[in-house]
Amino acid sequence: MFDIGVTKLLIVGGIALVVIGPERLPKVARMAGTLLGRAQRYVSDVKAEVNRSIEIEELNKMKAQFDDAARDIDRSVNDSVNEIGSALDGADTSYTSSSDPYASGTGWEPPPPEYRHPGKKWRLKVGATPQWYKQREGVRRHVQSGAARVMRHRPRRLG
After folding, report:
1. Which of 42, 112, 122, 134 lies 20 to 30 Å (CA to CA) from residue 95?
2. CA quadruple 71, 76, 81, 83: dihedral positive or negative?
3. How many domains would you assign to the chain?
4. How would you classify residue 142: left for phi > 0, otherwise alpha for psi between -120 and 50, otherwise beta?
5. Is the pTM value of this prediction over 0.85?
6. In a domain, 80, yes or no
């Protein structure tokens, strides 16, 4: 971008030292650094925004392609269903099986099976753990307040 070498920077720094003076040079350099940082952040934000807008445009194009493909598939499925339906309408439908109750065309379906609770006894499982095992593993059996827990675990004073 810029062809600035070390020698050119030294020349610019020397001129700035002579023109601005040694007292104000650190303040000016600090201000120039902050302005340069702001400019870099602004440029990076603009680049990020442009990239986001490009990605959004690409996603919208891809979405449109998928929508078109879905519509084409839907049309082809509907066309094939209509062809099959018209072929069935023209076919001989005099045969019906008397053993199949759904073939009569009444639309009746049996009700779904009723809900049965699995009958699991989770309290039995929890309560079936022996007390000696709970004691050995340190399982809490009773609720304890915060103050009681602090008092229980506080180190004892010697003396």
Report:
1. 112
2. positive
3. 1
4. beta
5. no
6. no
